[in-house]
Specification:
This protein is of the alpha+beta class and 552 residues long. The strands form 7 sheets. Strands 1, 2, 3, 9, 10, 11, 12, 26 and 27 form a 9-stranded mixed sheet that branches.
């Protein structure tokens, strides 16, 4: 165990297990009220999955939208999240996330010093559901100077290894071939950081200002109880930390424990991009003392490719976004046929990879392949690869579609027919098979400068042709410890366990199986972190049945 700020004390008011955005929000909120707080991080770097994320927050009916006159309401948001959660979300958690998200946002800005960019045109993911809006619910952190804010602590914050660009800039610029790399290199040299790392940086700065102690390489394995109340944690090293008021579990999901993932998740997880320290430690700690678990079949699903990237020495997957959404690419299954709208949100698209082919006892759509032509590669590039460079091992290249089909093991006649049919749709600007390019979300991630009628559609015409394998991946699991609307952990009888709170991917998601929009991971988990911190401090802003009833 290594302390990065402060020094070891035998007892703290609050012990937080984990150091992602939810953990840091809880820690910083409690510290603002004068509580002594220690954050225990299992890995050698701070920030967890949040630090390598896009850093966006989905916060419906927020004050930024209201100030700009955009139409939204708690009622509309409530209807939308209930629809997108497929009827499986618990009302108490849904209401807490929807009704208190803006209070969390204001607190983060006004008390913690976190600065955000308001995205007025980022659409909700499911435009077909009641209550969806085409912009105003997603925000993201501003660029932050990590050295100015954290000093030497900056060297201990996890990075995704990418250039410091915002998600708004990513959308504006589109393909990586259009990024202003010289400008981004200047930003990096100035120690500017973006996305999730910027969010974590600003939360850490607040925590440090208010005296939070930060320790890494501190793996918590067990909870300590006295007279039925949780009053501390035990580390793998045998050291114990007493918590006078509360322990907060915010240690991430269980995706890196293969046995847990295979036994619990609804579909096989082939890869993930989160830190390998997410092994379900918090879930086990809570289960040992009788905590209830819910939603453990679910994850933040995403279509990914395995390209050789690593994190903490372990292979990870790479999220596919524009590679499948840009005009001129399609996805095909093991039969060489399209099977979904490639431009839809990653969570729902990944669910299409779960389909099972019962007669052949295999997955129908996994592995899948993104297929594109030389023109697409020249216009946009693919991941870090650019036209004219040697073809990387993760790309399959062939002079013709027939030859490409042979290399990826799909029927050549099917692949050729699929491309011909899609090309006919693309030049007309419509996709009657899967409706790609019809929603505001699809078009948002297309190419506004596309020469064809629809920004999401373009033909595949010129060889050589390429294929990129796609498998079912996830940012992390999102089921686990059950809590109430103030993040108090519930036992198997539904009663709060005194002294124990839990937030983030270690817990049941507020949105159950749903993914309402960009930032639907960080928005609710930071809200629950805020509510936990306020509840521990005995301050208002917890779950309100009256507000919930009004929203319904």
């Amino acid at each position: 165990m290594k302390f990065l700020t402060g020094s070891r004390q035998n007892a703290y008011d609050v012990v937080v297990v984990g150091s992602g955005a939810g953990a840091l929000t809880a820690a910083a909120t409690a510290a603002r009220s004068g509580k002594s707080v220690v954050v225990l991080e299992k890995a050698s770097l701070l920030g967890g999955t949040s630090a390598i994320s896009g850093g966006m927050l989905w916060v419906p009916n927020n004050h930024h939208a209201r100030e700009r006159g955009l139409t939204d309401s708690a009622e509309a948001a409530s209807a939308y999240v209930r629809a997108v959660s497929r009827g499986r979300g618990r009302a108490e958690l849904l209401d807490a996330a929807v009704l208190h998200g803006d209070a969390m946002l204001r607190f983060a800005e006004e008390e913690l010093g976190v600065r955000f960019i308001f995205l007025d045109n980022f659409p909700d993911y499911r435009q077909d559901l009641p209550g969806a809006v085409d912009g105003g619910r997603t925000i993201e952190p501003e660029l932050a100077n990590i050295r100015d804010l954290l000093g030497d602590l900056a060297d201990h914050v996890r990075s995704d290894g990418r250039a410091p660009f915002t998600m708004q800039e990513y959308e504006d610029w589109g393909a990586f071939t259009r990024f202003p790399w010289d400008e981004l290199n200047v930003r990096a040299a100035a120690r500017l950081v973006a996305k999730g790392r910027a969010l974590v940086t600003m939360l850490l700065a607040s925590a440090v200002r208010d005296g939070v102690h930060l320790a890494v390489e501190a793996r918590a394995t067990r909870l300590v109880q006295s007279d039925g109340r949780v009053n501390g944690v035990l580390l793998e090293s045998g050291e114990e930390f007493e918590a006078r008021d509360a322990v907060v579990i915010a240690s991430g999901g269980f995706e890196w424990d293969a046995k847990l993932a295979d036994s619990m998740l609804a579909s096989r997880l082939y890869t993930m991009c989160s830190p390998p320290s997410n092994e379900g430690d918090g879930l086990r700690m809570a289960q040992r003392i009788g905590a209830q678990t819910r939603g453990t079949r679910e994850a933040w699903w995403a279509p990914m490719s395995i390209t050789g990237d690593t994190r903490d020495g372990r292979p990870i997957g790479t999220l596919l976004r524009f590679e499948r959404q840009g005009p001129g690419s399609i996805m095909v299954n093991r039969h060489g046929k399209r099977f979904a709208n490639e431009s839809q949100n990653y969570n729902d698209l990944a669910r299409c990879l779960h389909s099972w082919d019962s007669p052949n006892n295999q997955t129908l759509n996994t592995p899948a392949h993104v297929v594109f032509d030389q023109g697409y590669l020249e216009r946009y590039g693919v991941l870090s690869h650019r036209a004219g460079q040697p073809t990387p091992s993760y790309l399959i290249e062939a002079a013709t579609l027939e030859a490409l089909a042979a290399k990826i093991g799909v029927p050549a006649e099917n692949l050729v027919a699929t491309v011909e049919r899609f090309n006919g749709f693309a030049v007309q600007g419509e996709d009657p098979d899967f409706h790609r390019g019809e929603t505001a979300y699809d078009r948002y991630w297309g190419d506004a400068g596309n020469v064809w009628p629809n920004p999401s559609l373009g033909p595949l015409e010129r060889g050589p042709f390429y294929a990129l394998e796609v498998v079912n991946g996830a940012f992390g699991t999102n089921g686990g410890i059950a809590t109430d609307g103030t993040a108090r952990v519930l036992d198997v009888d539904g009663e709060p366990i005194p002294g124990l709170f839990a937030i983030g991917n270690a817990t049941e998601s507020a949105y159950a199986a749903g993914y309402p929009g960009a930032g639907a991971t960080l928005g609710p988990l930071m809200t629950m972190g805020y509510l936990a911190g306020r509840a521990i401090a005995g301050q208002p802003a917890g779950y309100s049945a009256e507000l919930a009833e009004a929203a319904r």
